[in-house]
Amino acid sequence: MSGIATTAPFAPLVLLAGLLLLFGKIWPSRAGLVATIGCTILYYLQWRITQTIPWGEGADKLWWPLTCLFVESAALFDGIILLAILSRPRDRSAEADAGEARLRSAWDEDAGLLPAVDIFIATYNEPREVLEKTILGCLSLEWPDARVWVLDDGRRPWVRDLCVAKGAGYINRPDNRGAKAGNINHALTVTDAPFVAVFDADFVPRRDFLLRTMGFFDSRRIGIVQVPHSFYNHDPMQTNLGLQQAMPDDQRFFFESIMPGRDGWDAAFCCGSNSVTRRTLFESIGGGLPEGSITEDMLLTLASLRQGYVTRYLNEPLAYGLAPESTAAFFVQRQRWAQGAIQILYLKQGPLGPGLKLRYRLLFLPSAWITQGLQSVFTVLTPIFFMLFNLAPMVGINLEAVVHYVLPLIIAMLSGITLLAPGRYYPLAAQILSLFQTFRILPVALQTLFRPRGLVFKVTPKGADAGGSPWESTILSASLALIALSFAGLMINANPDYRIVSQVGLMPMVTFWTIVNMFMLMLVAMMCLEKPRVRGEERFALRQGVTLLGEQGQMIRSDKGDISISGLGLEVAEATDLRVGDRVEIILPDIGLLRGFVRRSGRRIGIEFDFHSEQLRDRLIVALFTDEIRINALRPSALAVAIAVAKRLWSADLRIVEAPPRATALTPASDKLSAMTRVIAPWEKEERKAPVRIAATRAGNDRAA
């Protein structure tokens, strides 16, 4: 094999480039791309196993090459599973269109033909500014019998009062056993609709959420319908690297490429929020969600597969929530996911338990949480170990072999996945994020692998509670230390008098490898510097024209600017005579007449709303959050994102700025309600339409069990 690499080192690269071009652009074929990448992996592995391991040597020469081979092979195993997933995505929008048409027709004929749906909003400690959006969005769902229930595991009086005031139902329980799964299971015992939709406290559904999803249940084998987690804010990578306008959030690859692919194998799974479940599914698996893991959603899907149900995935943004608002919140979320995914390996209901087909066992293996982390660690440590300890990951390798075997594998994996998931997978950004989270997630995943019991469900902090340090000190220290070690290795081996490496011919390749690693580590270090979220509320581009009425008779119209719950930014062609402090009235189509104060004048007018009506504020929230939100809608090319990421090295703002404290006045401080079950029924639709509601008349519906 080495002779082939010497005589024709570029042949595999040329062949690979031709096949990627053929199946990716000229004659698009997912099967062709997957076959091309698969053959490249096999060609690499046969060389790697037979030619680069010193099989005849002792353990002192074998341990490091074998360790590196094991990590590579494990990562390639998960890569092959990913390729299988991406090979058969499904687009269910046409089915959703047909289902919506049937449902609307039935509604027009007789609203009683459509089944009731219980809407569960699971909450524990989220602040009011987060929770009220979800409550109002759920109350605005287009469905004749949608029963909105807030499941308050925090037993907070202000949540109960908010539900009573808005018309949502309220349920709490005397304890928190089973965390979120236990909260939902308790609510299942006091409700009875044949379908249950579940939303996390920060996810606001679009009005047509049920009309787009409920049609799938015409098939009796559909137990769950899941839609993506879409976001109306930017995640920590976008914010800390200043890439808000250059790339979407990091979860687009999972929700817009991986999940549609899993759907093609009937292996999509419930993601904890933005889903609808058939109640008979709960009844068939014991009456509720499995409580053996902190990732109850994945266990629910595995349990449903064993009962003959499948989870259908509709790749449409039908609900919007909050991406982690700080690095600290990001790691609370991702560590919980990693712990729960590893934990289910030990459960009878998990992927290794009885009653599952082989394809489901493979597709639900959580090994990627470990293999991706190990791959990132070894990518950085391998050249350092080579330069400082003369530990080579393979033997008998030269530049020709790298060109012949290694480069084709790297190009096939990165370019192939990019072609299979265009506009969703960005290789450079993905590698940097993987390295960034490895420092905190890999130790947790490995610990869970050996100690899976006793894990505590931690809610991702939201809103004013997201907080966090101005910098992520653990990752910052580790990345700077690795940069220093990499630089030291290069300097030591640049001097013949101090050189450690015995295979000097490999140093040019190792130098390039090390420089790439140092580049990524510098970007990882930059991600550790938390950029403050200066706005208390997210702003959205205006969808319709706005009219301002000044106290002196001014009338200003514009359709350019942005709006939030708290205020309005309006761009005008010419500066106006409005002054800071002036009172104005704002005409917003479909909402009404609002009042406010001028906080900025000139060609961009800033208005702070002064709500004189709670109903107007509620209508504004519904208008902003229950329609399409395009904050993360851009889908640039992989090259454009790579250039934008690279530019951050010399154009990023590296100052550490303390975030201004968020206003928390909307969330009253109060003691907990007494430890007992409370069920306050939601209003009927006709009651919600009434302009005045006396909440005290509903006290009789508050019952204890």
What does this 3D model show about the protein?
This protein is an alpha+beta fold and 705 residues long. Helices cover 46% and strands 13% of the residues. The protein has 23 helices and 20 strands. Helix 16 runs parallel beside helix 19 (473-494) and helix 18 (427-450) crosses helix 20 (507-527). 43% of the residues are buried.
Topology diagram in text:
Elements: H1 2-7, H2 11-26, H3 30-51, H4 59-86, H5 93-109, E1 117-123, H6 128-139, E2 146-152, H7 157-166, E3 169-172, H8 179-189, E4 195-200, E5 204-205, H9 209-213, E6 222-226, E7 230-231, H10 236-240, H11 252-264, E8 275-278, H12 279-284, H13 296-306, E9 310-313, E10 319-321, H14 327-343, H15 358-363, H16 368-389, H17 399-420, H18 427-450, H19 473-494, H20 507-527, E11 540-541, E12 546-550, E13 555-558, E14 561-563, E15 567-571, E16 583-588, E17 592-600, E18 604-609, H21 614-625, H22 638-651, E19 678-680, H23 685-689, E20 703-704
Parallel strand pairs: 1-2, 1-4, 2-3, 6-9, 7-10
Antiparallel strand pairs: 3-19, 4-8, 5-10, 6-8, 11-14, 12-13, 12-16, 14-15, 15-18, 16-17, 17-18, 19-20
